[in-house]
Amino acid sequence: MDSAPSATPLASSLLSIRPLPETDIDRALDLAYLVFHDTPEDEKRKHHRDLLLGCHRIGAYDGDALVGVLVAFPFTVSVPGGELPCPSLTFVSVAPTHRRRGVLSGMIAKLYEKCVADGHPLAALWASEDAIYGRFGFGPATYGNTVEINSERPLALRLTPDDGPLRLVDPAEAPALLGGYYDRTRAHRAGRIARSEAWWSEEWLVTEDEEDDELSPPRVVVLGARPEAGRPGGTPDITGYAVYRTKTRDDTSGLVRLDELEADTPGAAAALWRYLAGIDLTGVIRAWGRPVDDPLLLFAADRDQVRVTGHFPALRLRLVDVRAALLARSWAAPADLVLEVTDAHLPANEGRFRLTVNGQDATYTTYERTSDPADLAIDVRDLASAYLGGTPVTSVVRAGLATEHTPGAAATLDAALRTEHLPHTVDEF
């Protein structure tokens, strides 16, 4: 994924930005560990090195010294009606000796050049520090809830859970068993990355949790018939699954940490939640990164038992090519609006454009420059937040961050951007 070795000069003639070769990966890791105050063991370092081998890598150099690193995973992310390539930033590091010298700005500019050259209209990241990336045009496009359930008593539900068979499966078999099901669910929610078999096994289902070594290995429970009793050809008739870990705690009941739960129907989801709440010798379920519109929050009969304890921005999105991104997604309603877009970093996105979504099924879209007066003025950062359907443009207007020149313009755009399910991702990187 590396581009030709051109360099971008910075404030000092000795500072330049260029592709980071494989021979500098170990130096890049040393810098990242310095910045993030980390000292991983050899096995983890090897894993990080292997990850970086498959990524696009950008380095900032002061003479021969490596003083900045930016790495981008070659991900594909679901968008309404399809999916798009979406380079996703990680290992972003600037040496403490070179802060506030344009190193990060230069590396991100280099990434944008790469995205434009490759025809990738999106970029994404999870922010280690919230205040940094908004100024580069990244807006929070998905949100997550942390949910805690008191499972010292049976989980009270307002509906009857499905009575299909539940079975535990070997995590080593999970990528092959669940991969197709996960891919199908991606089509229903924007913001979700495509998982390779390696991502399943080496990131999602690793034996030892990196943040808490007292947690058990991953457990995978599947709802649905076995392959031989399922669909034609022996395909398992899965209607839901959950990935979780457990931990014994000396001073209180044990913990179930839920990493992921997917289900086709509310009844299937209820069956999986009831299973998790019934695990012996545990008394609390902690689920990090649940969708904001999780049906559990409605079918739980006792909201004192099921509590939202946290709400946070998750995936940040950047519209590198606004036109290509808008033309690539599907729409829920017709629209004819002139948008005045500001973008401090990518002039091609800036200006007034007429967005037209035509047809009874809102399938024909155009986005072209115009001299007509603007109906709505919005920054590219806020347009990115709204792109997947997760942040209403009307809310951005009410917050004073966008200007509605034509009454109802924001509501019209919201109706066109609307999705059946809110965007969501739980794959942190």
Automatic annotation (TrEMBL):
Q: GO terms for molecular function, please?
A: aminoglycoside N-acetyltransferase activity
Q: What Pfam family is a match for this entry? A: Acetyltransf_9
The Gene Ontology biological process annotation of the record reads: aminoglycoside antibiotic catabolic process
Q: Where is the active site?
A: Y133 (proton donor), F429 (proton acceptor)
Q: Which UniProt keywords apply?
A: Acyltransferase, Transferase
| Transferase keyword on record | yes
In the UniProt record, does the keyword Acyltransferase occur? yes
Question: By its UniProt entry, which CDD domains does this protein fall under?
Answer: NAT_SF
Q: N-acetyltransferase domain spans which residues?
A: 15-160
Output the Gene3D superfamilies linked to this UniProt entry: 3.40.630.30, SCP2 sterol-binding domain (3.30.1050.10)
The protein's matches in NCBIfam families, at most eight in alphabetical order, are given as: PRK01346.1-4
Which HAMAP family does the UniProt record give?
A: Eis
User: What protein family is recorded?
Assistant: Belongs to the acetyltransferase Eis family.
Its subunit composition reads: Homohexamer; trimer of dimers.
Question: What protein name is recorded for this chain?
Answer: Putative UPF0256 protein
Upper taxonomic lineage: Bacteria, Bacillati, Actinomycetota, Actinomycetes, Kitasatosporales
